[in-house]
Amino acid sequence: MDPRPELELETPERVAVSLELAGIGARALAWLADALCIFLVWVTVLVLYSISGDLFRDVQALSFAGQLLAVASVLLAGWGWDVAWETLGGGRTPGKRLAGIRVVRDDGGPPGLTESLVRNTLRAVELPLGYAPAILAVALGGRRQRLGDLVAGTLVVRQARFDLSRYDLSEPGAGQRFPQLRSRAQAALDAGGFERLGDFLRRRADIDPQARARVASRLALALAARAGVEAPRAEDAEAFLEALATWYAEGV
Amino acid sequence: MSGALASRSVASFVRAHRQGWERLGALSERASTSRLPLAEVEELDRLYRRAAADLALARSRFAGSDAEGYLSQLVASAYRALYRPRDRGAALLRLVREGMPGAVRRHLAALGLAGALFAAGLAGGALAVMLDPRAAVLLVPDPVRSAVAAGRMWTGHLLSAAPGISSAQLLHNNVTAAALAFGLGLTAGLGTALLLLLNGVLVGAVFAYAFRHAMTADLLGFVAAHGPLEISALLLAAQAGFVLAGALVDPGEWPRRNALQAAGRDAGPLLAAVVPALTLAALLEASVSPAQAFPALAKAAVGIGLALALWTWLLRRGRAA
Q1: Rounded to whole angstroms, how far apart are CA atoms B44 and B108?
Q2: Which residues in chain A have their CB less than 8 angstroms from residue B184's CB?
Q3: Residues A174-178: what's their mean pLDDT?
Q4: Separation in Å, CA A232 to CA A83, A177, A181, B273
Q5: Cβ within 8 Å of A, B 148-187
Q6: Pairwise CA distance, residues B318 & B101, whole Å
Q7: How close A251 comes to chain B (CA, Å)?
Q8: Contacts of B220 (CB under 8 A, 6+ apart)
Q9: CA dist., res. A148 & res. B229, Å (int)
């Protein structure tokens, strides 16, 4: 099975887009964060009410506006929380924002009022069962939809944060020590290889010195073979890797 | 375009286009929350097309890279911004004017079933208490019986609570019942049917009990304002539940998964009709119902009038009289 299931969709411009589906961890985190938010809203309202309860009581006994406010706060702080945020916030509740996920329709668009109502109302049957059906469906299902998603035709996708600065030239001069790599870098690396190599170069300061040297020399050996150049000496391995990454990134 | 073709590495590809992408990201973020001026919409459109082309290139040449993942998300969010419904207000109006009545009328059988089950429960509960007073011990809740025994309206205590809070609680309970009536449709409708029957039995038994103790007028005076709307909301939610059940039991020529999704599209407008009905009922229940100032007749007129208006809208709108 595909370890990272994706939502494949095609825009009207015939461009295929694939979005990674959110897993059970992120969705559980989002749910917990939302539950905490709702709990805090309730606590705040109750504290305010108990502080000024007697003051309110006389006013509220008559005031229709007060009731309207109370009803609105119940809707917002309970059942309506998800619906309101998902409809007005492009499929993201505060919890989902925190967990880096969002709800989308299966055509990629943001969920509307009816879709959000359907997917959240169906929590009523999943919640009394401790969310067991939802957890199983999200963990095991191919499209990671719980009952509400299935009926509403929605999916939850990951909103990953990508750091494009990894493609910047970190040390433009690093290539000069190994000019022979200039014409070979494109053959030795592809996009994925370049990213992994960049990961290693960025994180090497945190690696145990012995392991760092071992990994560097093995990488250098393998990449030198691919590039068709002589392998560098062990103490030059990291400089060699830097040069290779820099020449590749320059893209000439 | 020459930049994209000339760049041989993913890094130079990203560096060549990054500025435009980030501008596109900022524009679509803003477009999702506010209206953009025309010049910026045109820019959004232009950048979107360019990013779509970049994505196609990234998918073929740099598959699996962060650049491809970034572009996928970027194009998807720009697509959401460009193709989002133009006006939420108009969409809401269309939902109320066409979506809700249409969904109700497409599934009249489900509505009829819900009404029949509720009526059956009502009749059963009333009959049981009328025929055998001991049935009341089982069917009528404790607080109701002790209140009637004391000769006062059991709902009197609501007056002592702040109306705002009680309406909030009532709404919460009613929303839970309606949500269950809908959700239990997934048990092939059995759960929804049971819920309707039980609620019918409860209401029927309470009415019969009040009748036996010559308190019908008091009870009517209390429930007439909000009761009709509450029951209407329950029936609508149950109708939505039976629509789901229908898709599960008899999906027709579709796979069950797709039939369920199509049913969900019809259930949505029904649920959207439940929400205002319940909200209004809760407000009435907390303000009009317990007020002694209104005569029972006025309360009944309000309650029945509102429910009639709701059903006329849902069943007759757009038809020649």
Answers
A1: 46
A2: 125
A3: 80
A4: 60, 11, 11, 73
A5: 162-165, 167-168, 171-172, 175-176, 179-180, 182-184, 186
A6: 9
A7: 5
A8: B296, B300
A9: 26
Cα distance between the two ends of chain A: 39
Cβ separation A164–B66 shorter than 8 A: yes
The 10s digit of each residue's pLDDT in B115-153 is 999 999 999 999 999 998 888 888 887 777 777 777 665
Classify residue B53 by burial, with Cβ atoms within 10 Å: 0-12, 13-18, 19+. Answer: middle
Longest CA pairwise span in chain B (Å) = 92
The tokens for B64 are: 């699996």
B96 touches chain A (CB under 8 A): no
Coil, strand or helix at A8: strand
What is the number of alpha carbons within 13 Å of residue B178 lying toward its C-beta?
33
| B chain contacts of residue A61, beta-carbon cutoff 8 Å | 162-163
One DSSP character per residue, B177-231 reads HHHHHHHGGGGTTHHHHHHHHHHHHHHHHHHHHHHHTT-HHHHHHHHTTTHHHHH
> CB A121 to CB B8 under 8 A?
no
Q: Which of B21, B59, B268 sits opposite A115 (nearest CB)?
A: B268
Query: Within the 222-251 window of chain A, which residues sit less than 8 Å (CB to CB) from chain B?
Result: 248-251
Specify whether the CB–CB gap between A202 and A196 falls below 8 A.
no
**Closest in B22, B75, B168 to A74, CB measured:** B168
pLDDT value, residue A4 = 74
| CA-based nearest distance A143→chain B, Å | 12
Q: CA A10 → CA A13, A19, A63, B38, distances in Å? A: 8, 11, 53, 26
CB A229 within 8 A of CB A184: yes
- Residue bearing tokens 């208006």: B309
Among A48-62, A137-151, A178-192, B282-296, the least confident range: A48-62
Q: Of B5, B9, B275, B284, which to mutate for an interface test with A (greatest number of A Cβ within 10 Å)?
A: B9
Find, among A17, A13, A160, the residue nearest to B45 by Cα: A13
What part of B 276-295 touches A (C-beta under 8 Å)? 279, 282-283, 286-287
Model pLDDT for residues B191-202, shown as the tens digit of each residue: 999 999 999 998
Task: Go through chain A and tell me how many residues it has.
Answer: 252
**Would you call A162 and B244 a contact, using CB atoms and an 8 Å cutoff?**
no
Q: Please tell me the distance from the alpha carbon of residue B222 to that of residue A146, in angstroms, as a whole number.
A: 41
